Amino acid sequence: MAKAKKAPANARKFPLVDQAEQAEKDLFSQHQGYQIPEYINANLVHTLRDYQDEAIRNYHYTQTQINPNPQPCSL
Fold it and tell me: Is the dihedral of CA 50, 53, 64, 26 positive or negative?
């Protein structure tokens, strides 16, 4: 009998990554199908791995689509 997998108790959640993944799936999002500019790939010795490509796309999403929350200034 196969053991049932337990969900890790300390599973981390990354809301910005979740938002970027949701925007990638959204048909009307400007983020969908974002291509890394060719000048970035031209300046690299090796090609980007899948997780690196995804990280750059997520970074682009956070810099262009997310409005920063104003942080209260505590003195």
Answer: negative
